[in-house]
Amino acid sequence: MGFATLEPAFTVRLQPDVGLNVGKLSQGDTLTVFPIPSGTIKSEPGFPIDLDAEVVHGADYARMEAGQTHLQINVNAVAKNKDGSLFAYSYKGMLEITQELMPILTGSPDAKTTSYGNAVSHVRFETGAESLKPLEHSIFVGTAHFVVLGPGKFIVETKVSKVVG
After folding, report:
1. pTM as predicted
2. Which residues contact 67 (CB under 8 A, 6 or more apart)?
3. What confidence tens digit (pLDDT) does each residue in 130-151 have?
4. A single Pfam family, by name (predicted)?
5. CATH of 5-164, one of 3.40.50.1820, 2.40.160.20, 3.90.1150.10, 3.90.380.10
């Protein structure tokens, strides 16, 4: 006993644009910035905070480690809820580079939707909207997979859960 549990909270779907390759950094990582022009953040049925939001701005600063086995992800976005409230949505995480993921990252026509399990993140919310303030006082984690829409186009779908002590 004593371990935290997870409460399903949100499904997030982000559609990144083509990455901007910043290049190899001095510590050996390769930085690529993926603009995120669109996406949605929606509450799971029964979750007490009602989000039905559209992403209005965002970017993922993705760092491929020198060994090319993992990608460190750092997403920062702004979303607008159905009631007009704005909030910042961000996460940092780790993505294991697998054989099924490489065709997606390279834009191969052979790319296929991945399963969940190799992408995890710590999710944060920030807002000035009183109705959404409980988001700032909770801990959230996510697990993601990649949904292929066509050659070079995909959505990152994340299932976000609240950590319950």
Report:
1. 0.93
2. none
3. 999 999 999 999 999 999 998 8
4. DUF3237
5. 2.40.160.20
